[in-house]
Write a structure and sequence with these properties.
The protein has about 90 residues and is mainly α. It is about 50% helix and about 0% strand. The radius of gyration is 13 Å and the shape is globular.
Length: about 90
């Protein structure tokens, strides 16, 4: 798995495990929510400074964003959207 894919995988894995929305994490890290989403889709190539901010907001070491998943590990599922289905 390439670096950008590792970051995307682990960013979503940790964020979902903590029950954080992209919006909440983006606010905590001081980055745009759309940009954070593009990181999870591997559409952007983040800087080390940005990864530092995200790791700090997640309260994990930077190295956590580069862990290789186990061969049998399923991709992390997205959180259920908070605004969908509301009237």
């Amino acid at each position: 798995m390439k670096g950008r894919a590792l970051v995307a995988w682990n960013l979503r894995r940790v964020r979902v495990a903590q029950g954080l929305s992209q919006e909440r994490l983006a606010a905590d890290a001081g980055v745009d929510r759309a940009y954070l989403g593009s990181l999870e889709r591997q559409a952007e190539n983040p800087t080390v400074d940005l990864l530092d901010k995200v790791a700090e907001a997640l309260a994990v070491p930077l190295s956590e964003l580069f862990l290789a998943p186990a061969a049998d590990e399923s991709p992390p599922m997205p959180l259920r959207g908070g605004r969908r289905g509301r009237n």
